[in-house]
Specification:
Layout (H helix, E strand, L loop, with lengths): L8 E2 L20 H10 L5 E5 L5 H5 L4 E6 L2 H11 L4 E5 L11 E6 L15 H11 L1 E12 L4 H5 L27 H10 L2 E10 L7 E4 H6 L4 H14 L4 E2 L3 H10 L9 E8 L44 E4 L7 E4 L5 E3 L17 E3 L12 E2 H10 L3 H17 L6 E4 L9 E4 L7 E4 L4 E8 H18 L12 H11 L6 H19 L3 H12 L11 E2 H47 L2 H36 L5
Parallel strand pairs: 1-4, 2-3, 2-5, 3-4, 5-6, 9-20
Antiparallel strand pairs: 6-10, 7-8, 7-10, 8-11, 11-12, 12-13, 14-19, 15-17, 16-19, 17-18
Helix pairs in contact: 8-9, 10-11, 12-13, 12-14, 14-15
Length: 638
Amino acid sequence: MTTETAPRIALPGGEMLAWSDLPERRLPGGGPLAALVERVVPAGARVLLAGPHDPALLERLGHAEVTCLLRSYPDGVALADRAGDRPVSVVVGGPGGLPADETFDVVVAACGLDAVESVEGARVGWDGLLERLAAALAPGGTLLLRLDNPAGLDRIVAAAPWYAGRDDADWAVGGALDTGRPANLDQLRDRLAGVGLRPSGCFAAYPATAAPTALVDAEALAGRTTSGLFDAVLHGACAGGFAGRPVLQDPARLAVDALHAGLGAALAPGWLVLAVRAGDAPDGPPAPLTGIEPDGPPAPLTGPEADGRPAPPARTDGLPVALVQTGPPGIGAVEVTEGWRWRVAGPVTATRDAPFATREAAWRDPSALAGPVPGGRLLRTVLLDACLRRDLDALRRLLGGYADWLAGHADHAGRLGGAVALAAPDNVVVADAAGPTPVFAVLDPSWRAADAWPVDVVLARGLWRFAAALVTGGYAHPWPSTLDVAGLTVVLGGIAGRELDRATVAAAVDAEVAVTAALRGLDGTARLALAEELRAVEPTAPPPGLDSHQQLREAWLRQKEELTRLAALLRWTEDLLTSRERALRRAEATINLLSGSLSYRVGRLAIAPARLAKRGAGAAKRRAKAALRERREGGGQP
């Protein structure tokens, strides 16, 4: 394609003709990043997309005038084709191609600044790029800038060092080695202040900055370290984002530990920072994004959200606490608003199938994500803590309360449906966990069971998921290590006051396969592979779906312990057989010795007549009984 066939592509010079920066991994609809940009950009605004963003972002900015600044000519052609008839202009050549007198209401550099500067033009460096983008902001304009964390979770768990990359995308050196760019948030704030910008908010990006599936307000992460919502969000984002990739340790466990230590934002793979032109915005400190105090209750609800009606879309203020990509079959990015309430950011559709033969085990009801987010700690985390401390009293109280809570929602036939039927410990929050009567609630109520299940199957499914995570994750617990996952599930059911058997656990595993397949949108082949994987979960195996060196080592140690136990049992069995064989040989020798003695022979001669007499008496008795039987059958009298 040439510039004649793509008239909206401006080539001021410095374009890279044989280079592409478009991200390989893309989320449906642009994911949480696109939802955040849509919230930041007001209607009719002039927007500059600096860098190679996901083309799906253009579809979310149909209400604005968009200019794309790229360095790759093939990427410019692809974006121009994707834009179609919309008023989108493309400038290829790096920051030098922007007109000096053109300004924008919003500048989005959500890919960082490394992919903005062209190697074919004059090099200005990171600070020069920031200064040029800041100058392109109109009075009161907003900059959305991404910064990768050189000490982020993704680098900590990576199996290959970040400095060993040989791909085209690794040509720029990032991190603390290059003092020409910021390496943390404090340094970034100083650079922003140096170009006349004032930070107004920051989102931590998980599990990677290139395609984040979760954006969480950094201040809220630091203030709400025991939030069950953040626990589930970070665990889910990292578990899904690193699935199938070799890592040094479990990134989901590390993310949750960082949250509890108040380091959820500090160890984030990257940040998205919002900044405004200093001196052009209203005076005074920026309004907080979350609308909540770190240790206090949620802010009171006002406006249409107070009575359950959906809030009107806000473009420039009232940014959410968190944006989460929920995965297929997806409903787009789900928001948690500043009033600590659910909100679905994009268009939603129910996914329940009408024909019974093709109905999935679970379906999504987007309308359920309209109420307040339940408070409390995640039940899975509280149970793990009790297991590590060997606190059997706490386990009895929590598991018993969990079982009673499930039973309290059952119908007259003892079956559970709706969201409670899928309420496993990783989707349940518990308030007052240390009290005598814990209060349970479903965290994400949008997933619903298509059909009702018996209470015991629902309970066994939740306990099986927890037992599998407990034993395959290598967590210490107060029960024998020889228990398999099904056996431990039965034990947990007994602690909860319910009598579960292995047949019920097998039915629960089948339900888990069906639900997981529905949540992931798996086809028939993938569903069969999932069933084989879950049914083969053993204490000596690593967690399913996780390729972690640390977890593999722990699994190897458990296998070593099991082999040691089996070898000891084999040695004991061999010693027992050897001792029995020696005793048998001694008995045979004694018998042989006695059988050749004179007393043995005399004894046999003495008892021989008695044996013959006994045999004769027995034969006579049998003949007499036969004769009596014949007489009775013939009608005679004895």
